[in-house]
Write a structure and sequence with these properties.
Helix 3 runs antiparallel to helix 8. By secondary structure, the protein is mainly alpha-helical. The protein is 75% helix and 3% strand.
């Protein structure tokens, strides 16, 4: 399957044309990326190595951090490197790869957040049957479904975009390859494809966001049956989940639940959910979760003691 166009690369305008602004953004985004990778990989290592974090919630949390790390690595390093150059280019094939991987991990994370909400519902509303319902086989199956959903979502985008004719301008007013900026450059009528983006991205964001709000509403309503300590712990866990959901879905809804067009604010919103949100997720989950913080302290203390003995 060969693309029907004579464009071999796209020129990205980036976030700013100011050289001084690019230098500042380079330092800021490099620091954010380092914090993102350290925070998410630390959570993954803690979940894998700690024997106290064997509950399904931490299994899913570990994969959420893994997805955030890969998702951020797909987009952020290229953006950081581009800030060092006046002319920013990306090949057609690299653009399609970035589009596919970005939407794959973005959609998989959306479905994983639904799974995590279901996990909290079972844990709080059906505590006596929790380990029976959320056994290891079910957890792995749910995780596979999240990946399958991500592949299907990203695959639809590639099927629509890959064979579009790009025969004219190749300057994209963005810093990554995304659907609406690409459709704007295609030399054909893309109205129907634009509607498919709303149906694919917009519907997923809106419907799942509403389902998550309803599910957490049910969970919070059921807290009255718990003890004061159980209520406090459940509120802390659900609070962190709801925070992540709001940070992830609000920009997504604004971006895709609207007529297919590009707006000046799009780049700022894209920065938020591609760069900022993956950094905030580990901070939100670790700062509000006592078990995670204790497991990290024990893990690091054990490693420091072991290192001291070896020396």
């Amino acid at each position: 399957m060969e693309p029907r166009n004579n464009v071999t690369e796209f020129i990205l305008l980036g976030l700013t044309q100011s050289l001084q602004g690019q230098k500042i953004l380079f330092a800021v985004f490099l620091l954010i990326y380092i914090v993102t990778m350290v925070g998410n990989l630390l959570i993954v290592m803690t979940v894998v190595m700690s024997s106290t974090l064997d509950a399904p919630m931490y299994f899913f949390l570990g994969y959420l951090s893994f997805m955030d790390a890969v998702y951020s690595t797909t987009l952020t390093p290229n953006m950081i490197i581009d800030l060092l150059y006046k002319k920013k280019t990306i090949s057609f094939q690299a653009c399609m790869t970035q589009l596919f991987i970005g939407h794959l991990f973005g959609a998989a994370e959306v479905f994983l957040l639904v799974i995590m909400a279901y996990d909290r519902y079972v844990a709080i509303c059906k505590p006596l049957h929790y380990m029976t319902i959320m056994n290891q086989r079910v957890c792995i199956l749910l995780l596979l479904l999240a990946w399958v959903g991500g592949v299907m979502h990203a695959g639809v985008h590639i099927l629509f975009v890959y064979n579009l004719p790009f025969c004219g301008p190749n300057v994209m007013d963005h810093f990554i390859c995304d659907m609406y900026p690409l459709l704007k450059l295609a030399c054909t009528d893309t109205y129907v494809i634009g509607l498919s983006v709303i149906a694919n991205d917009g519907a997923i964001c809106m419907v799942i966001f509403l389902l998550l709000l309803i599910s957490y509403g049910v969970i919070l309503n059921s807290l009255k049956n718990l003890s004061q300590e159980g209520r406090r712990k459940a509120l802390s866990t659900c609070g962190s989940h709801i925070t992540v959901v709001v940070f992830f879905f609000v920009p997504c809804i604004f971006m895709y639940v609207r007529p297919p067009t590009t707006l000046p604010i799009d780049k700022s919103l894209t920065v938020f959910y591609t760069v900022i949100t993956p950094m905030l997720n580990p901070l939100i989950y670790t700062l509000r979760n006592a078990d995670m913080k204790n497991a990290m302290k024990k893990l690091w203390t054990r490693n420091i003691i072991s290192f001291s003995r070896d020396c």
